[in-house]
Fold:
Amino acid sequence: MNHAEYLILMAGCVLITLPLEFVLKARVYRRWRIMVPSVLAVVVVFGIWDLVGIVRGHWTYNPEFITGIHLGPLPLEELVFFVVIPLCALLSYEGVSTVLGWWRRRRTSDVAGGEHAS
Structure:
């Protein structure tokens, strides 16, 4: 097994959703003043949750799949997860909102133009 598998998976998540920023104009990265506090809230809340779970022995991380770099008891990969997944979720949400907006505008213009919506 590869010790970087978890990080590779997180990189894949970023690569899959990154085009939404440019193609669908999700504007998540460009609105960093909103993005940073949103992601930071997730990092803090779930970071504390994870730390408590690790310290109390409720869960562990398989050393076969992580680099071995830890911030206290928290594996680096888990911190990366808490940053990447909320960003991917925000990009997905904004991308879907953009597409729905296009669809609504088109539907409204079709109806206004005399075409019947099915």
About this structure: The beta strands are 70-71, 74-75. The mean pLDDT is 89. DSSP finds four helices and two strands in the chain. The longest strand covers residues 70-71.
